[in-house]
Amino acid sequence: MTGLNVRKQRILHAVVTDYIQTAEPVGSRTLSRHYQLDLSAATIRNEMADLEELGFLTQPHTSAGRIPTQQGYRFYVDTLMDTASLTQQEEKYLAKFFTQLQKMQEIDEIIKHTAKVLSSLTRYTSLVLGPQLRKSAFKQMRLIPIDGERALVVLITDTGYIKNKVIQLPKALNEKELNEIVAYLNKNLSGKTITSLTSAHLRKLRHDLYARIDILEQILNLLEESSAAGENRVFIGGASNILDQPEFRDMNKIKHLLTLFEQGERLVLMLDTNVDGLSIRIGTENNLAEMNECSLITASYYLHERPVGTIGVLGPTRMEYARVTTVIKEIAGRLNRLVELL
Q: Is there a contact between 76 and 12 (Cβ–Cβ < 8 Å)?
């Protein structure tokens, strides 16, 4: 179906491998000297011309060698990519790092540090989407009286997300009634996600707490506000790493990309794809003009087998796909186990 026989696949694999390492167009002589293809330079040159005609390679300049196209990278990732392993030193480093993270209680701090270690190990830019409140389950609510007219509402989710807000209390409400309201809400909301709260659930809450509907509405407003605010928590690690890539020496290209880093809502849309597991998007597959020359590798992290957030690595299309994929899988797995402990 692809028109790629074994020989063409071996040559495409060699071209992609060499270009990832050098960022320089690859010629037939380079392949014949440095890769065990057992083919003459002339034969390799003819095969590369065929690969170009098929859309897997392109020639940036007439006298230059060839580089992979987006189609070439996609075939490489889907069919030809080798597996990579972490070094013993990297494994020890991650084990120590996540042991230290266990001491943290705030999910935002854990995610922030995860973004840093992800960018450090891959040498690219990392993007980590914090647990989305709409995908998090209600764990506990507390009402802490401040004075006779106000109380602090504290919302806690199973992903460790904490949100609080001061609400107004009716003067006739005593401490016993306040505790009864909290106990009722904790019982009826426990384990439910924001998205699972149907209109029937809300009708029941309003019916049962009819006498205290004013407090209920303030609490429901807090849930809505928290959901909206929680959607934009994207943590970026190693943003300057993108400047180290030869593809982004053009300041116009990097300017648009750095502007994208400041646009939380667009980053969320880019990361929150509802695709479980690992995803590799190359160039225009990202559906953002700023990302046409970038690849984004993402993986979901889970709580109780429910995807709650995303970790990702952003780099040029000339990315070390095998290595980055290995690092992301390892960190996502460790993050899954850590979030379960919160």
A: yes
